[in-house]
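Quick log. Single chain, no ligands specified.
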Amino acid sequence: MKRLFSILLSLLLTSAATATPLKVFILAGQSNMEGHAKIETFDYIGDDPTTAPLLKQMLGADGKPRVCDHVYISYLTGIGEANGEGFGKLTAGYGSRQKPEAGGGKIGPEFTFGITMDATLKEPVLIIKTAWGGKSLYHDFRPPSAGVYQRSAQDIEKQRYLEKDSGHYYRLMIDHVKHVLGDIKRVCPAYDAQQGFEISSFVWLQGFNDMVSRDVYPLPAKDATQPRYARYSEWLADLIRDVRKDLHVPKMPFVIGVMGIGGAQPNEHIAAFREAMAAPAKLPEFQGDVTAVQTAPFWSDELGAIADKHDQVRQMAYELKSKNKKFANADGSMNEQQQREYIKQFEAKLISPAEEALWKRGASNAAYHYLGCAKTFALMGRAFAEASLQMMQQSTK
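-> predicted structure:
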């Protein structure tokens, strides 16, 4: 009997010593956190020898998108007020969705983020993702400590940005995280309540709607002393403090996905906004637990060049319809069929068959959605995971 008791005690102590709490990761933002890369662009990842191994991780033995047995996801998204949740084992399809509960055939950063965590951690993993397209930090995700958004006369005239909606998506995000953590087994059947869970990092990928707003961030005068997007930096710092407070994790590792649209050659507005996004990571209070990850290096230059040519084609079509004096339809004599034929010939001269084939292989959306390129989103997801892991390791030390 004593020997049996000794064995049981030893097993209990060993189990307690090796307890592995569920690792919880929160991903939040707007359309690029949703993710607009179609699964059909996966093969493009394999064209590059440096990313071919990553594609191998993304696919199962049958050549189809991998299903992660130890990574679970809950994804709150929607269009307008029609929000809903999709959840289950992580696989491709948890990108942008027309119906929140159903797979949309796209990925965002979550897929390779989870795959990287699965390959690195012994513990089971839960990703809680909340993302909606077209949302701002200044109003939609406005953190509580920033106060209620102050409407301008123009806002009142246009009946937009109502005070009651200030921070609405911030609250949805926090409420959903708490909802999932209140009944983890609903989403993650493998969860062991005795081992518990820990919120390990938060990833933020947002910004486009703030960047293009000249009402909230007016163009600066030549003698301006403050950067155009300085308030974004302030509000993002508020967001970091507030999510840590509301989720009761004072030093929660926080990853800022710095907008990389346009790659290495951004225009002045994108360049200024990137600086504003990265700025909070430089604050003394955030040293060691906030990391700004630049996503510009993951932009596809070759696809971007083709996208520029597609823009030229669209511009030409517009010019023909507007009867611009510089173009073929200056006198308005071309009918619609003639205009279509002209554009077809113009496009054929501008974009080669090889370029068109490459575009179809690697791109599936517009430039502001990183061209809908799975290679770009896969590299972002992995980078976000690696930044999280590095901060997690530092906090453990």
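The chain has a mean pLDDT of 93.
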